[in-house]
């Protein structure tokens, strides 16, 4: 009598495997990117202090008192490195590198800093029992051992305006009064549809939310392409913080977001004005030193496990 084949039906196994994987994927995505109805919502930053010269201020202006904690792959942290470089603040504001750890699910110190091995430990040094998200960039006060600010849009304004007495390029103003309305308008539009838009595509958990995010992303990219037809930068012939905020997303677009985040309707290279714009900013003094495309690609493809379970990094 022959043995009965007791293997599970292939179709049954596939259904169970898909159910288990999708359930685990949704659980991991909910931790990676808090969402509502499948749409990604970026959490608000928790530390929003300012640095100024007022005598009663906790955080006063001093050279070598403050430090930036950044990860090279992070576009939000990249903004701060760009402004620090453009303003010439390398000798006044120290930089400490953190690297993503897929096993620990967060950033770890490249070298031990403030006796901390992880970014979470640094956050908890600043605020004991802190349980929120531990993100970069972090503007850190080495004197009080506290986080000044962890909102990139505020940090770049601080770096642009508050440290001119220590800057080697103090005359550069990336947020001039006469362009503030235009800068703020572009920032609002670009944040929702481009900076955060690529994440809304990549972290979407339903087809409809993905399509909405993707269509709005490319609609705004088309608007920017048209604007750049007669302008060197977003607000005319002057580089501003709006350009800094856009550039750090665009420089990552074709090597990461296009494929990994499914932002695949067009590449930036296929836009004549946008691609010129990216190259123009990239050729500014020392900007190429503020990022590393190989590190960026490795970190995204190697550490965003829910989006790339194999960890395979594409050739480029």
Task: Summarize the structure in words.
This protein is α+β, with helices and mostly antiparallel strands and 316 residues long. It folds into 2 domains: 34-172, Glutaredoxin (3-Layer(aba) Sandwich), CATH 3.40.30.10; 177-286, Glutathione S-transferase Yfyf (Class Pi), Chain A, domain 2 (Up-down Bundle), CATH 1.20.1050.10. Helices cover 43% and strands 11% of the residues. Helix 8 (241-257) packs across helix 10 (293-303). The longest helix is centred in the N-terminal third of the chain and has 23 residues, at 10-32. The mean pLDDT is 91.
| Helix content estimate | 40-55%
What would you call the structural class?
Answer: alpha+beta
Number of domains: 2
Mean pLDDT: 91
Strand percentage: 5-15%
Point out poorly predicted stretches: none
CATH architecture of the largest domain: 3-Layer(aba) Sandwich
User: What is the CATH topology of the largest domain?
Assistant: Glutaredoxin
Largest pleated sheet: 6 strands, mixed
Q: What's the level 1 CATH class of the largest domain?
A: Alpha Beta
Q: Kindly, what is the distance between the CA atoms of the first and last residues, rounded to a whole number of angstroms?
A: 58 Å
Spatial strand arrangement across the major sheet: 6-5-4-3-7-8
**Strand tally, please?**
8
Describe the oligomeric state of these chains in a short phrase. single chain
Gyration radius from CA atoms, angstroms: 22 Å
CATH superfamily of the largest domain: Glutaredoxin
Number of helices: 10
